[in-house]
Amino acid sequence: MVFKKILYILLFIFFQSQVLAKDWKPNLVGSFLSSKIARSITDIDNAAYYAQYSYNQNTESSGLGIIAIEALLANGQVKEAIPIGIKISKDVPEITLAQYVKVLDNLNSGNINQALDILLKISPKGIDTYILPILQTWAAAGSNKQIGGLKIIKNQAERGVLEPLYDYHSALINEFTGDNEAAKINYSNIVNKSNNANAQVYLAAALFFNKNKNKELFENTITKLEKTAPYSNELYLLKNSTILPNKNLITNVKEGIAETFLNSAEILFNEGLDRQALIYAQISLYLSPNLNNTSYLLGRIFKSIKDHKRAIQYFKNVKEHSYISHDAKIAYAETIFDIDGIDNAFKILHEYTKLYPDNINFNRTIAELFYKADNFDKAIEYYDLIFSKIEKIEFRHWPLFYSSGIALERGKKWKRAEKQFLLALKFVPANPQVLNYLGYSWIDQGININKAMDMILKAADQRPNDGYIIDSLGWAFYQTGKYEEAVINLEKAVELESDSIIIDHLGDALFYSGRKLEAVFQWKRALEFEPTDKMINIIKKKIEGIIIPKAGTNASSKPI
Length: 560
What we know:
Layout: H1 2-14, H2 28-40, H3 44-57, H4 62-74, H5 78-91, H6 96-108, H7 112-121, H8 128-143, H9 149-158, H10 163-177, H11 180-193, H12 199-211, H13 215-228, H14 233-239, H15 253-270, H16 274-287, H17 292-304, H18 308-317, H19 325-340, H20 342-355, H21 360-372, H22 376-388, H23 398-410, H24 414-427, H25 432-445, H26 449-462, H27 467-479, H28 483-496, H29 500-512, H30 516-526, H31 533-543
């Protein structure tokens, strides 16, 4: 609806003489403009339609061709993008994406040698610099050519750049080519070296070790995954599987190349590059339509750009037997929450709790969604339910203490909340998030000021670019009456994070520093960043001079 409104307004401005009927066909300028608008608001479907139309009107334009390739790939229209990509790869050979499309065409035809030749001639830029050696090595593995690809990957890994990714694909390639001893070394490197590799990588290692009857390595991998991702759904499913698969994760070259594009898409998505991530993920799904992790990633990307219908479609594509299936179920319920609110999402998750009573992640998600819906009592109820089923409190439970503490604090149950935060700190005494939340809460109440200040300073040392933590530091100075120091830190916090509460804090600090005009300016800015109704009322009264900000709880000074 947003796209259509913008499009109709602009078309009226530019083409007033043209009647906007239902059977309206865009002209070249109109379709190009429409595609540009659609891309700017991440309307993937319309961007593809109008980009393709524009190119079809002028197939000699390489610029329109490149736009069309990107838009069609992002929309999953890979077949439509291939002929355009083949032409662009000849006209503008330096466009890497067009060369990738040409590779897809050769892979479809079984021409792996030609695909390899294309990959070897690409001059990469950006992320392609890192993934091209992996693509080349997969193609070489399928064409029985030795190009030193594994050595290239090893050299890249030793540079420390995306090391887990290189080890992972070295393991997959060695496993695929039958060199299980080398694969064992690669998988062992992943488990031993990395403390933040995603659960899927650990899962691949565990399944390999199990298949090759390396019981000790299998158990070590499970133990490491329990430490790095104790609430991983993959871990739950792995531990509760009666029979583990006994085949290679990758059975052909197309699947290996698909996995490479999937991993690249994950990196791009984590960097906030949604459209680029879509392109690589759609290529991955085209090459390997049954790759459940790709469907799950596409669902997450479409959810992030608020295309809920497409997100649900991809989440539902994830097969029941997949180790990612519980992640997809939870993401599906969260998408329903985004569309309809808590009631339908709760019904879905509640049914899953009956089917999988031992997986706490469904109840945990219910608690989180009730929290998002500002129903703190129900959130607390479900956190309490989770704790009631835990027989022995362990290190892995500290995130539950932290998140339940936040719900209790928001639900005006401070004594219980404080207890949860302190319990979390027993397990993770240096965790910046817990230090910050408890420290800020104490400061805001005017209690344990010195201890709270120490905690917030420790958090800020670890996360100097976290706007919310620097806000806490600024507010701590404010509450102790050090208003100038408060201003310095709150100005930095506002630069890092545009948030109505942080900007309001800065206004208060400026007011007590004698900079009242600047304070009013900041309060007015705070109104632009979606404050609550209660905050709006208070801020407006401060702007009008009806009330003055409350002084620091432990401050002796008055407004200058």
